[in-house]
Amino acid sequence: MKQIHHLIDGAEVAGTSARTSPVYNPATGEQTGELALADVGEVDAAVASAKAAFESWRDASLAQRTKTMFAYRDLVDRNADAIADALTAEHGKVKADALGEVARGLENIEYACGIAEMLKGDLSVQASTGVDVMSIRQPLGVVAGITPFNFPAMVPLWMIPNALATGNTFVLKPSERDPSPAMLIAELAQEAGFPPGVLNVVNGDKVAVDRLLVHPDVKAVSFVGSTPIAKYVFDTANANGKRVQALAGAKNHMIVLPDADVDLAADAAVSAAFGSAGERCMAISVAVAVGDVGDSLVSSIRQRIDKLIVGPGNDPSSEMGPLITADAQARVADYIQQGADAGARVVVDGRDRNFDGDGFFLGASLIDEVTTDMSVYRDEIFGPVLSVVRVDSYAEAVDLIRTNPWGNGAAIFTRDGGAARRFQDEADAGMIGINVPIPVPVAYHSFGGWKDSLFGDTTMYGPEGVRFYTKAKVITSRWPDPATSTVNLGFPTNS
Ligand code: NAD
Are 168 and 142 a contacting pair, CB within 8 Å? Predict the structure, then answer.
């Protein structure tokens, strides 16, 4: 069985805590790996390595940092297939999806290749007589990243490129459920030429996270995961004086207006609700059918679900893979029952699909006539379940988004430009899609939600990422008038 260790000070280090956690292939249900879980001493060793590396990495020239970033970009690109295979093997998502995930991560490395442009700073010459004022941004020091299972390659790459390019050093704590893609990404960083200690990986659970949140040498924490843990991470790290950005859970609504192209909306709903088995923070989990569009929308989605091929991620014909664990499979199945018990209409029941073997598969489910008091509406299910809520008007639909505690993404499908324009103004969420179901911004914009989807005030990657990983310094300087200088500069003297 594969043993998965830590990466500290540029080398793979076997765990010493004697605590381990199983890693599964979700498509077969087999345990394929054993992950070392760090104790406090191992976390401290990683932070110490990062702290020592910071002394020289912060002074590495922009030219050197850029060159290393380009080399890293090249290596990740050349190894995209291997990273995607590692991803499919431990997360379960289909290979095409896994390759898409690596591509989105790569875009963040490409963005960070332009770091010299982003760190140029500002200068006001002659702010007062003989006085110049300059603003620069400097790195923070050792920063930590704590990442979720659902994007085990992309989310670390939301953080690492900007953190390193701005001159910080990094300690990553990946999800314990699918750690291999992050390990691969970190090994490629060593190969690219980042000096030892600039990027460390400690594998672990709450013990490792809790140490990072209070460690005096960790200056900032980037977190992505569920809402309760995001809030805990934000509160704890913040109370310990750290800069924190904690991206959290979601319940994303997709409004379909009566004038929408129903085929387009149904295609979008199916790919956004069931892609990656619904284990995406930007997955659509609620379709809001406005007016009389409900019946045709539900029947179009149903037809598409009937054709959806669910199978192992490494089978090229599969369109949706398994869930991450047996627990997740049971939890999601239970939500379908709760929906039925509460009086919703289960149009397609994913529990009816039969699968060979012991993989953590569940078919896609469509639940109609859902109301806002039901648990299928209230909770983040994080699985392949799409609820349909029917309302009479656009105003009611927007109100659902406004009153929902989460605000990661929201989408509208319509042919009406005026309605779309109103929606982009009124929808209470951080990322808005207009005829786009998963509006994940590109690397040169930043990513993050509102309300219970984000704790902290800086979103991730892009310009906000650069801002998060740097602190501002303003330098005001006055030099003597050259005419009064004691050095002979060739000016006529006053005498
Ligand atoms: P999770 O909150 O269970 O775990 C995230 C990280 O926190 C992991 O590294 C885990 O080891 C650690 N952790 C878990 N429990 C902890 C505890 N009690 N104390 C300290 N650390 C703990 O999330 P997950 O199940 O891995 O990922 C799915 C969740 O992440 C969903 O809620 C999803 O919406 C969210 N997510 C959000 C975004 C976003 O951008 N907003 C992106 C991806 C995923």
Answer: yes
**Residue ranges with strand state E in 105-249:** 122-128, 131-139, 142-146, 169-173, 199-201, 218-224, 243-247
The rounded Å distance from CA 366 to ligand 1 centre is 25
- Closest CA to ligand 1's atom 19: 206
> Chain-wide mean pLDDT for the chain?
97
Q: Where are the domains of the chain?
A: 2-248+453-476, 252-434
| pLDDT tens-place string over residues 32-85 | 999 999 999 999 999 999 999 999 999 999 999 999 999 999 999 999 999 999
CB-ligand 1 contact for 149 (6 Å cutoff): yes
Taking the CA of residue 226 as reference, the ligand 1 atom at the shortest distance is 32
Distance CA 39, CA 50 (A): 17
Q: 373: closest CA among 338, 412, 424? A: 338
Mention the CATH class of domain 252-434. Answer: alpha beta
Exposure string (b/e) for 81-91, b if CB count within 10 Å is 16 or more? Answer: eebbbbbbbbb
Q: What's the CATH fold of domain 2-248+453-476?
A: Aldehyde Dehydrogenase; Chain A, domain 1 (3.40.605)
Q: Tell me whether residue 281 is one of the annotated catalytic residues.
A: yes
Q: Which residue has the tokens 């012991």?
A: 358
| Structure token pair of residue 193 | 């030429």
Whether residue 484 has pLDDT greater than 90: no
- pLDDT of the residue at 490: 80
Extract the tokens encoding 20.
């381990």
Ligand 1 atom 42 nearest Cα: 281
Q: How far is the CA of 148 from the centre of ligand 1 (A)?
A: 4
Question: Residue 15 C-alpha to ligand 1 middle, in angstroms?
Answer: 23
408 in ligand 1 pocket by Cβ < 6 Å? yes
CA 211 to chain CA centroid, nearest Å? 22
CA of 158 to the centre of ligand 1 (A): 15
